[in-house]
Amino acid sequence: MEKLQEDVISMIRSCLISNKSEMTLKHLENDYRTLCGERIPYTKFGFKRLEDFISSVPTLYLRTAGNETYVKAQLSEKSQHIQSMVNKQKSSKKSSLQKIRFSNAVYRQPTQPNRWRPKEVNVKWKSKFQNSPRLAAVSHNQFVNRPVNRQPPQQQYQQGYQHQNYHQSAARQDLSQRLHLPPADKKLTSTTSSNNGNAAPPVVTNHVHAISTSGQNGATGVQGNVATLRYKRTTSVPLDSEPSNPCNSLINAKKRITRKMSEITLDRDSGNSSPTSDTQPKSPSPELPTFVRTGNSSADLKKFAETFGLGEVEISSNQVAAKKKAERFFTCKVKVGKNTYYSYPEDFRDPIEAEKYCSNKALDDLIPKHSRRKSLLTANHLDILERVPPMLEKHQHGIWAWQLEMDYADKYNEALPADWLKIIDTSQCIQVEKGLESHVLRHCKPGDVLQKGQKWSTTPMKMSDVSVPSNTVQFNDDARLSAQVTYVVSASEVWCRQCDNVEFQAYNEMSIRMEKFYNAHAQSHKVTEVDAGRYYVANFDGGWYRVRAVNVDSSDVTCFFIDYGDETLLQKDNLYQLKREFATCQAQAFVCRLAGLEELYEASANSEKLMSIMSKQVLLELASDSIDENLDELSFPVFMYDADTGNSLNQDLIPLLTIESASPVITKGSITEVYITNIESNGDVYFHLHSRGYESLQELLLNLETQILQNPPNNLIEPITKTNSENKLYFAQYKVDGHWYRVQIIDWAPQGNFAQIYFVDYGNTDVINVNSEVLYPLDKLSDVLSQYPFQAVKVKMALDAIPTDFIDMATKLMPADVPVLLKIIKYDEESCPLVEFFKRSPEDILYCVNNSIGMEAELKKGDGNNNKSPKRKIISFSDELSKNVPSGGTLDRPDLPSKDSYFEVRISFAVNPWNFFVQPLKSQEKLNTLMENLQKRYQNVQYSPLQTEDITPGQIFASKHEDGCWYRTSVIKVIHKGSISVFYCDFGYYSNLTVQQLIPLDPEFLELPYQALKAKLTDIKPKQNKWTMEDCEFFKQRVEKKNFYSILRDIEKDELYESDIVLKLILIDTSDVDDVYIGKELISRKIAVEC
After folding, report:
1. Disulfide: which of 96, 133, 323, 411 matches 541 by Cβ 3.0-4.6 Å?
2. Residue 371 confidence (pLDDT)
3. Where is the HTH OST-type domain (predicted)?
């Protein structure tokens, strides 16, 4: 039943999407019946009304306007050909993240990679690269350090590349340029670690500036592999001396910055409006007091606050009423200076326990912030100005001063002096913002530094907020690194985690400690408010993960997993405060893109084939030649190799992705929108699916055509023979439109000079002289295009017989630029799909093209109208002709009794006592039989091949009424092709239809005379000048759809239609014991009077 419901919903969406706009429920039901041959089976799914079923489908929308209800489908990415909505949607339930632990297997020597490189023509695609919208949405920040002294690849792998540009661009990435500082005339010399000689200028893959690479120089902790350069000033070397190593541009820049900083004095800033001006420097103490907890939490808290000057400690407990009177519990509130702590959400039956819990909670938070290590050397101001900016640069959303102070001590084993905030406030690339409780520090460009006292327009940070350093990707000297894939979005967005550095080991150890800590203390670290841009710990699928909040609404938070690159929607209850000891390790996830697959970036989104590299151990090689230094790229290009086999994953994925994204697929029973490309006389039809893969192909072909016209690759042209051309694709020019297309040679002339080529994406063929035509082998032009699936799909139209002029008829009904709907009926003996095509008329009526072609072929065998009168094309005289044609058209009039005789009738339609229609009751059974046969005969017909000139007043046709039933219809007047006045000659309805709604009627349905006879009550007239609306409504309810005896008094001409007659009747209701004369009843009710 669930599968049936999915199929029904899919069919409904096909109807709605093909309509290109919303449609009424009635319209939808008619279209569904046309496509499926039955009504929408909503009752099978437990719904009493169609509206209720539609409302239960999330991707369908209902709208009521007046008396009509409209339905509209939400377009998915597939139906829009770009899939942007579905691709961006995330499920609230996410598969478990794989925690990648440190393993010696990561460091095993991988198999020598095959060093695959894309075709030369593919390189031009790098200039078309655009950042993924998702990267900007998650506000990802990362840095890439790459070596300068890398050995160039062997010459045979350098086609299309200019490696010297790499060194030129690397030289431009010195620190003075990114800080917009003028070059200094004098340089400071320094002694640096020997392992810095190969350090490269970092590549920045976001809007924030690059950071520097350095040696260890005493650095400790998890940041040791990217410790900042440290300089020892000396007077023994002239300041203007130049270093001998030309690769030390970054070091030179650092020296210039150091000199600049040394020239800055604290007197340069007036301090009147500086956020640190009101922070008086404390006298430095050689050794801060030692604090030891005694176990008495309240006393310990008061002692700690007194020792470190935090202010008064206020402790208050409250009793909370419980639902059961016998129960009571307590909560506690502790205030230390400006910091407030609560025991919530824990409950305690003893106020002392509540006080103890809350005091310990306060101590746990305050001790790391205010206790400082003993016996640390104090950093000097030049070191501070040199070291702090690179540290801040890795905290994109800012960091509290207390956290940076602790991070500095961990990193350099030195304590910052008491006035360090005032020192860094003089830096051109540091913004210091004073909050209510402390200072927030942010890195910025010198030109972006705000005026002192200005506020950043971000959400204010809380004292509990900590910041996690951004990721720094460190490539080895050979521009490679070992990694593991953690998350895949597309070929342009692959998230990895580096596995060959000390940082990864530190992260694994930290994650184990973090899991143990939050398993034991999670409840005491719940957050009450969540702010976008802040870091938290998330409990997800039984694990603990570091996340950053991206979007926050009332109850849900979109969280970015900073160590995996994934994002998902979580409840606020699943987020916890991130402790500072778990924020020291940098974010592990970095994002790269697969070089050489630029043509498949968009088509590879959410690819199942691409997901196969998830969790794979890989070797990444930086594709430096694909980096455009002028573009603000959020990811960096790589060549990715399987660590086990050495195979290029870039190369292996090209055929897999192209086949997956661009293979046209149609399935039996489903409805597919297609575009016809070629029609053959034997009933074969070729079509396109305008999918995302098809759109990508068009762009690829256009770009390749442009490149060939600008720079023809004549060196690729080779003699073509029957032997070497078998199953080979070429790029050839089509004579008709002059454009270039993919072709395949399918047949040769005996002499070998002429060949028949098949356009694999359109289905048509042509004959060329192979000696005079230019055919470029595609496998030498493009890896992607040579393996791209053929786009032309062949089907056969399901017809009883193929008309001789089938091509003209089908082309007229299905032009190449108009989409049609396709439905597979079955498969023939050669497994070729037999299909029906459906199309919408200009009047928005869905009809079957197969039926229309078959009907037109039948009409051409006869006179074309199947009516008794010959076909007459006299539309210009239709007005005059309509005056002489009765409403019943060419049908016979039913036999009438003589005057003053009884006449049994059924009233089919009533307007007022002087205007209603009766049917002879004696022929009622014949009429019912005719109606049943009419429904069966025309149930699958929705469109007519007739043109306006084929319609003549008086002709009889079949047409479908709004109730979904077919009726015999006579033409009264032809106004224009969109408006033809008709009369439902068996029931008495008048209406206006279009030409396409009139279906030629088979002769068997023309034998029964028309049944609707216009009538009026005799011997009465309206009490007032005319029949009121109340009079008409009463009469309609009294007589319509009921049987009566009548007496035929007279027959007169119809004033409106001269060729029609009106029966003057006396109606008698004999359904009860006493006969009721309707005319007399109207008089008694004062509706009518005698005349």
Report:
1. 96
2. 65
3. 4-87
Q: What is the CATH number of domain 671-852?
A: 2.30.30.140
- Residue 757's nearest CA partner among 785, 791, 729 is 729
Q: Which CATH class name applies to 83-88+117-137+479-658?
A: mainly beta
Per-residue pLDDT tens over the stretch 277-300: 444 444 444 455 567 888 888 899
- For the domain with range 862-1084, which CATH number is right: 2.120.10.30, 2.40.10.10, 2.40.50.140, 2.30.30.140? 2.30.30.140
Distance CA 295, CA 248 (A): 55
The answer to whether the beta carbons of residues 1016 and 1061 sit under 8 Å apart is: no
Residue type for 620, please?
Answer: L
pLDDT tens digits, 537-583: 999 988 999 999 999 988 899 999 999 999 999 999 999 999 888 98
Q: What are phi and psi of 908, to 5 degrees?
A: -85, -30
**In 666-770, where does DSSP find H-type helix?**
692-710
Residue (of 396, 533, 394, 524) closest to 462 by Cα position = 533
pTM summary value = 0.46
- Whose CA is closest to 1056, among 983, 999, 997, 994? 983
Q: Strand locations in 851-891, DSSP E? A: none
Sites in the chain below the pLDDT cut of 70: 1, 18-21, 75-114, 119-133, 136-140, 146-290, 322-326, 371-377, 397, 435-437, 445-464, 625-632, 661, 843, 859-884, 942-943, 977
What is the token pair recorded at 899?
């005057």
Rounded Cα distance between 389 and 443, Å, is: 7
* Distance from the Cα of residue 408 to its chain's centroid: 43
1030, 1006 contact by CB (below 8 A): no
Identity at 131, one-letter amino acid code: N
299-318 burial string, b = 16+ CB within 10 Å, else e?
Answer: ebbbbbbeebebeebebebe
- Looking at the domain that runs over 2-74, which CATH code has it been given? 3.30.420.610
Rounded CA-CA distance 924/932 in Å is 13
C-alpha of 566 from chain center: 16
Quick one: residue 596, left, alpha or beta (phi over 0 = left, psi -120 to 50 = alpha)? left
Q: Tokens for 709, please give them.
A: 């016209």
Q: Do domains 2-74 and 83-88+117-137+479-658 have the same CATH topology?
A: no
Q: Which candidate, 388, 360, 366, places its Cα nearest to that of 310?
A: 366
CB 36 within 8 A of CB 11: yes
- Its CATH class, for the domain covering 309-370, is alpha beta
Show me where the domains of the chain are located. Answer: 2-74, 83-88+117-137+479-658, 309-370, 671-852, 862-1084
Distance (Å, rounded) from C-alpha 778 to C-alpha 769? 19
Phi/psi at 259 (5° precision): -65, -45
**Residue 881: per-residue pLDDT:** 42
Question: Exposed (0-12), middle (13-18) or buried (19+): which is 958, by Cβ within 10 Å?
Answer: buried
Q: Which amino acid is at 17?
A: I
Q: Angle at Cα 1032 formed by Cα 1029 and Cα 1034, nearest 5°?
A: 110
Strand partners, 823: 671, 836
Q: What is the dihedral of CA 189, 194, 199, 201, to 10 degrees?
A: -10
Q: What are 993-1048's pLDDT values in tens digits?
A: 888 889 999 889 999 999 999 999 999 999 888 899 999 999 999 999 999 999 99
What residues contact 792, with CB distance under 8 A and at least 6 apart? Answer: 677, 678, 686, 687, 688, 759, 760, 761, 762, 763
DSSP SS3 for 860: coil
How far is Cα 919 from Cα 909, in angstroms, rounded to an integer?
10
Helices 401-412, 351-370: axis angle to 10 degrees equals 60
496, 474 Cβ separation under 8 angstroms: no
